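Blinded run. Sample ID left blank on purpose so nobody reads anything into the name before looking at the predicted structure. Input follows.
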Amino acid sequence: QYIIEAHRVAFTQFRLSSHGLKIETWRWSRLPRENRLCQGGSVQTEFHVLFQCNESEGIRTQFPDCFTQRSLNGFLDHGNIHEIVRIIFNVLRLF
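Blinded prediction complete.
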């Protein structure tokens, strides 16, 4: 089945840590990890935006079956790659 190009690009960026989340963008500025914060005050990591952030709660609600495992590896190993790619695309758009 076909994967939308923009979704594939977002997934690849996520896997390579080449995305716009603060955990990465501020790393190059040498900002200490504890200062790379999300709007809610937590460190904006990949795990945080997927599993904890209030901003992405709607996405977690929309795809509850993909969030049964509370780890990045469990999430990425979920059986439906099309849903995972779409989720990552939507989450990265939020931030």
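Unblinding after everyone has recorded impressions. The longest helix spans residues 81-94.
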